[in-house]
Amino acid sequence: MKTEHSEASDILAPVRKMVQACIQCGTCTGSCPNAFAMDYTPRHLWRMVMMGLTDEIFNSLTFYLCSACYSCTLRCPRGLPLTEAMETLKQIAVKENRLVNKPSQLFYRNFMESVRRHGRVRETEFMTLYFMDMKHPFLPFRYMPLGLKLLRKGKLSFQLPSGGNTLDALFRKAVEAEEANP
Q1: Domains plus CATH for the chain?
Q2: Is the pLDDT of residue 1 over 70?
């Protein structure tokens, strides 16, 4: 791991400010219900932020796996806004196009597109869009038993969507609000 003290490490400045008083006690890691699945523990991630290890941070899945449960923030003996710091890392990753977890981003984007178009998620359309974006021709077959089970129980339908139930105006407002408050 090399330390990056250049223009690239400046993108970490807001997060570094949030965690600069971290005493590396490990309470955040011990409190995190998702730490077992992370490639770096939250405590390790904060140290990497302080060291300016930008590439290592954004190549990890640690901040993607944060479920924003606030356990770390509530238990931190220094009162640091750790959940907010994780969220800031997610925002930086999106702004800097440093998305490592592409499948989850595609999943989220297709889910929201279905909601935007129909006012609710249309499962068949959503999964079709997702599988097409994944560009993995055999991926849908892995989910076929589940799909058939949901279809038999009436939880999944092939109903064609009705028009006029879009949330375009709401989504445009959200984009405008995000652009106004970077």
Answers
A1: 7-95 (1.10.1060.10), 102-180 (no CATH)
A2: no
